[in-house]
Every structure is written in structure tokens, then in C-alpha cells.
What we know:
This protein has 175 residues and is mainly α.
Amino acid sequence: MAYSTCVMVAALIPNLLDGASTLDGFAANIRPASSEIRQFMSGGCALIESTIRSMGYTPPGADLPMYDFLSDIEANYAAWRSELSRSSPRTAKGERSRADDFRKAYEANLRQLKKMDLGLLGWSMLQSTGRGWYIGGISQADKDTVEDDTDRTKAAFKRGGFSNPDIDGLDDDQT
């Protein structure tokens, strides 16, 4: 499922369309071909959904806020890849300024997406097992098992061994 539309991508790259009004009206000699642009859109969608899932959320439906923002991210990705696919004899930095601009817009918007708390926008969290808060430490049962183990050697160091001995409250039997 793509977030953006062919019309949205075509609006960003009119110089590549060679006069075609839609992606379906391409001449056979136009590169990138319409199927390649659709593939770029699909790749952009996959990258966006991977980012959303890595943040712990399910990808949104069209009724949720931010859907238009996601379509803009995807359209910039498809336009960037389309501009890159055109051959050019120039290889110096900044020579592909349109492609560079689309890449910068895509990356900046993706960074913004990563900074957002999507839960406040009504997005649902992924259902996962074994995730959540981990406080750390060991359980009391594990402590009791260690203390009851007669084969275990006693600790060589006492708690607070390097503390100031003039401080009240330190017992010699603390281990």
C-alpha cells in the first residue's frame, strides 16, 4: 500500500515525464519507466512502515492524522530515486541538485517522524510479548537460593570495606 499517489509524484518530477500527463502515459523511451517509479513508491512505503514499526506503532490507516505527511515523505523518496535513475555525465557534489533536494526533504521529514510521539495522535502500539519495562535486579527467590547454597564460598569483601570507619552505622557482619 502506497501513501502517496502517482499524481503527487508526477507533480514533483514534471521534467522527467516528457509531457506525459500521468505515469501511465509514458512513452517507451522515458527513463525511469512508470513501473520503476511505482517501485520507488513501494520502496518508500516500506521504509516508512519499517520506521513506524521500529518505533513500536502499527502503520496508520488513511483516517489517522499525519497520513498526508507520510504521503509527502514517500513522494519525496520516489522523486529522489527517480531523479537519481537518470544518467548524467556530471558527478561532482551538488550537480544533481534536484535529487539532492528531494533526498534532503525525505531525510528531514523522516527525522521529524522519528521524533514524534505517535501515541498522542491516536496511533496504536504494536502488540508484543516480552516487551515493556525492565526494572532490573534479581528476585528474592534467586537471592534465597544463593544464600542457601552451601557449596558457595563466602564473599571475600565486606560491603563498605573502603568506607570511612569513623562513620556510624557500618556493621562488621555486612557482606
